[in-house]
Specification:
Layout (H helix, E strand, L loop, with lengths): L1 E2 L19 H12 L9 H4 L1 H12 L4 E5 L8 E7 L2 E7 L5 E5 L14 E3 L3 E2 L6 E2 L5 E3 L22 E5 L2 E5 L7 H13 L7 E11 L3 H8 L31 H21 L5 E4 L7 E6 L30 E6 L3 E5 L4 E10 L2 E11 L10 H26 L14 H18 L2
Parallel strand pairs: 1-13
Antiparallel strand pairs: 2-11, 3-4, 3-6, 4-5, 7-8, 8-9, 10-11, 12-18, 13-14, 14-15, 15-16, 16-17, 17-18
Helix pairs in contact: 1-8, 3-8, 5-7, 5-8
EC number: 1.14.15.7
Protein name: Choline monooxygenase, chloroplastic
Cofactor: [2Fe-2S] cluster; Fe cation
Length: 439
């Protein structure tokens, strides 16, 4: 059973035309209008540099996106950066242990403040002229500047430019818009009960791997939304039921035995969740909501505990206050750039970040309980093995698709019965871009 949140009213099929004199937006709207429901996008929407730039400016720079987790910022001064085209966002934990986000640009002459993807700092010091900012973004020191009492600039007017940030059960979301949607708060209320038992605020990073896929970011997200290709993931299929996304009447005979095993595991999971008061049913709003999402707790195959060759746990110490390893996985998908799996023993988050029309960064982070000991409670190679292999396989699939959609012979094809969520993601993209391009 799948329930939904009350959603904003859907946009009309075609809103006001693009601003006069903007041929790229006009072309975008024409391509969006040509997309047929139930089929993939036209090739230019995956390959054209000008349209990719519009993706960044109209969608990524205006919608909430997943930046990372609080476990990546365990101490005051710890930071991470997220780059979206020419925009760079600095996310950090300030001296009062609050998570903040800023534009990664000095208020003097614009130098990039922090270049590394992650690290730790005391103050934020510009490497060019040594302007120095506190972790709350206020300007502390500007060498050789005339003081305010002598007619110089007021330091209070030169604080770092802030970026909207929300923490949802340990997940950090940011929005670059001047007037961000409040949708993240409504979605957070639904998602939090699924994730809070896993205690992401009491977790630590066991491993993090950045992988560049040679494909458009939308192809990366589409690939994640279906298991039609899951025969290509032998390691994952040890614990991931291949009938994911199919209704009962859509299960083919060759997968019937797997599906019967899935139904039995789901029944066991239902009993375990009811005993512990854990939410389990699917809740989704994938098309009309600005922060499209889907969350559910689902059974795993084998021992039903974790992503291992036999489904048994990979970390001896369980997360949060969980008392049972056989609790399947919470799966969360949020658009434009997040999916995650939360087991009783560890959590894996995936952040999708566009690098270019045909290149996408997939940042995978494995979280374990903060008191779990490497080499004693878990082995990093074993912990990361299934998804390191799966990510490499997915990168190959995305690369093949990028090569195909760039070919003049490509025409958008029909989705299969198991690709409903791919269609939902593409429909969400079309709706968001049409709304923004028509403003």
């Amino acid at each position: 059973m799948t329930s939904t949140l009350p959603a904003p009213a859907p946009a009309p099929a075609r809103t006001a035309p693009a601003a006069p004199g903007d041929p790229v937006r006009t072309r975008l709207l024409d391509l969006l209008d040509q997309r047929r429901p139930g089929r993939s996008l036209l090739g230019a929407l995956y390959t054209d540099p000008e349209l990719h730039d519009l993706d960044l400016r109209l969608l990524w720079h205006r919608q909430w996106f997943f930046a990372g987790t609080v476990a990546e910022l365990p101490e005051p001064g710890d930071y991470l950066t997220v780059d979206l085209g020419t925009v760079s966002v600095l996310v950090l934990r300030d001296d009062d242990e609050q998570v903040r986000a800023f534009r990664n640009v000095c208020r003097h002459r614009g130098a990039r403040l922090v270049s590394e993807p992650r690290g730790s700092l005391g103050n934020i010091v510009c490497g060019y002229h040594r302007w120095t900012y506190a972790t709350d973004g206020t300007l502390r020191h500007a060498p050789q500047m005339v003081p305010p009492e002598q007619g110089g600039p007021d330091p209070a007017c030169l604080s770092l430019r802030t970026v909207a940030v929300r923490v949802v059960a340990g997940l950090v979301f940011c929005c670059l818009a001047a007037d961000p949607s409040s949708d993240v708060d409504a979605v957070g209320e639904v998602v939090a009960p699924y994730l809070l038992p896993h205690g992401l605020d009491r977790a630590k990073v066991a491993a993090q791997v950045d992988l560049v896929e040679h494909g458009n970011w939308k192809l990366t997200m589409e690939n994640n939304r279906e298991c039609y290709h899951c025969d290509g993931h032998p390691e994952l299929l040890r614990t991931f039921f291949p009938t994911w996304g199919l209704r009962e009447d859509q299960v083919p005979p060759r997968l019937r035995a797997s599906h019967e095993r899935y139904l039995a595991a789901e029944d066991d999971l239902r009993v375990a969740c009811e005993r512990r008061g854990l939410p389990r049913e699917a809740v989704e709003d994938l098309v009309h909501r600005p922060l499209g999402f889907r969350v559910q707790r689902e059974a795993l195959d084998g021992a039903g505990e974790s992503f291992s060759p036999d489904g048994s746990r990979l970390v001896a110490r369980l997360l949060g206050d969980l008392d049972e390893p056989r609790l399947g996985r919470v799966t969360l998908h949020a658009q434009p750039n997040l999916w995650l799996h939360a087991m009783a023993d560890h959590v894996i988050t995936f952040a999708v970040l566009p690098l270019g029309p045909d290149r996408t960064l997939v940042r995978t982070t494995w979280l374990v309980d903060a008191d779990a000991r490497e080499g004693v409670d878990y082995d990093v190679e074993a912990l990361t093995g299934v998804w390191r292999a799966t990510n490499e396989q997915d990168a190959a699939f995305v690369g093949l698709t990028q090569a195909g959609v760039a070919d003049p012979a490509y025409e958008p094809g029909p989705y299969s019965e198991g690709e409903r969520q791919v269609d939902a993601f593409v429909s969400w993209y079309v709706e968001r871009m049409r709304e923004e391009a028509s403003r």
